[in-house]
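Weekend entry, working from home. Most of the wet-lab plans are on hold until the incubator is repaired, so I used the time to fold the two sequences that have been sitting in the queue since the last round of cloning. Logging both here for the record. First:
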Amino acid sequence: MDAATETFQKHRPRLLGLAYRMLGTQADAEDVLHDAWLRWHQQDTTALDDAEAWLVTVTTRLSLDRLRRAKTERQHYTGPWLPEPLIAETEQPEAELERVESLNLSFLALLERLSPEERAAFLLVQVFDYSHAETAAMLQIGEDACRQRVHRARQRLREGRPRFTHSPDTQRRLLEKFRDALESANVDSLRALFAEDAVHLADGGGKATATLRPLQGGERLVRLYAIIARRYRGYDIAHRLQWINGAPALLTWVNTRLATVAWIETDGERITSIHALRNPEKLARLEAVTNPRPGTSLS
């Protein structure tokens, strides 16, 4: 491995983490890294004072360009848009250090509230710990403008954050109850699970059956999932609890095909929101590396 390749591979986990958080899909993030790799090999790397800063700058700018295009495309997306789960390529310590709250699917969905420029500034400063001056240089803006973008991003995210945050163990416990209620098609069990103002958000992308707008109200969610449970009687159904992006999620297979990845937010006692990813294009990577019938992978 030559020195330039070795340097790129050394920083690759951080670059992929940045691009993924910027774009919300692993496929787009990998495309950005491919373009960054090509630019890296066209660069005289011996003339660089800071290889990491150069690579992060290029990755950020490529991600910004792609995100601006994606924002336009998502305006015509069928129904709500949810991020695609990240399939880890490695368990290297560098990757583990970045697998924190900022990889949580609910947080990635919340980042959609930001403009591309706000998203880039916020991630560089708040998640990747670059200073405002370093971030401003990467984005080619003034330091004051950088601080304003980060401040606006914090405000927008604060407004959109769930009212309650609880541990993964609490989420797992409620997901286990949700799974059991689905398997038994027990309406009373479902009713006991949802908060009165619970929200359901589903992403089918026009390629799978899903609600086309957010559904609010615990009783409406009870009826929805009771219908789903009855509809799939007689099918080969398998549920599995698994860590996805650092948090518990419920994976559901229908006739050996991964049909849904669901994750929740909770007030500690009931489910306050549930996100259901059903777009088969976004599930394809996860389906390829998961097994529908092992025992639970959450311990």
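Second, folded right after the first finished:
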Amino acid sequence: MSDQSTIVSTIDAALVRRLIAAQFPQWAGLDVRPLMPGGWDNRTFHLGRDMTVRLPSAASYALQVEKEQFWLPRLAPHLPLPIPAPLAKGVPGEGYPWPWSVYRWLPGEAATDGRIGDLTVFAQDLARFLVALRQVDASGGPLPGAHNFFRGGAPAHYDAETRRALAALQGRIDTDAARDVWEAALSARWTDAPVWFHGDINWGNLLVEDGRLSAVIDFGTSGIGDPACDLAIAWTLFHGTSREAFRAGVALDAGTWARGRGWTLWKALIVYAGLPGTNSAEAEKSRRVIEEVLADHREFG
């Protein structure tokens, strides 16, 4: 969640053209088109045929620019799928207050259900990517903090927010079962050395070509620590055979899955409860995710 008062509401193609012309005149003649959907944390634009421009929408997201610029080129050689490649870093200007990035364009479309050929194969491919990411040397990597909203840390960081959502949802969901899931997440501690995680594995950050997973984007919440936060897609996209293929492929222990259920439940609860800073349009989806998480806890918890 972010400080809404810091969000810049007008980030449009005209602003991007001005920034490019002022800071990267070699690209000033290229077409600028907004990508749809353009994202919430960042606004993304197509620059010419082969580049994208990505501008943070709030101060809290601007912390991620330097991290991605530094770490993505170091992660990329070790991963089985393409990830964003930074080409240039912009600075504040033209009335825009934060650093921003130019990336090489990655082909593909967001991984909605209709674009994925075989969901079980997709789950296996994603699991292989996450295993490879965990195996990259984590020395000097970014620990959990404000730059990634404490992904990779303990779910307890959001304990007060979770309990506030549970109180607001009394009578609308099985809050006793949800509390059991949350308590299990709090009691399952990560005690191993920190490993790399993505931090926001969802359909919008996974690209598909010809029905197969083709790239992973948006490493703004990445870092080193506990990889449990990368398991949320098990309940937000996968089900049945695909979920079990993902579970087998990521090869993580029961405690990590307990924390993964906790991270997923926290987000779904605050959205369904309509806490400040959440998107009401996602409320019904969040209710279904809550039900999936509770069912998974009954079976595996």
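Plan for Monday: verify the second prediction. Residues 254-272 form the longest helix (19 residues).
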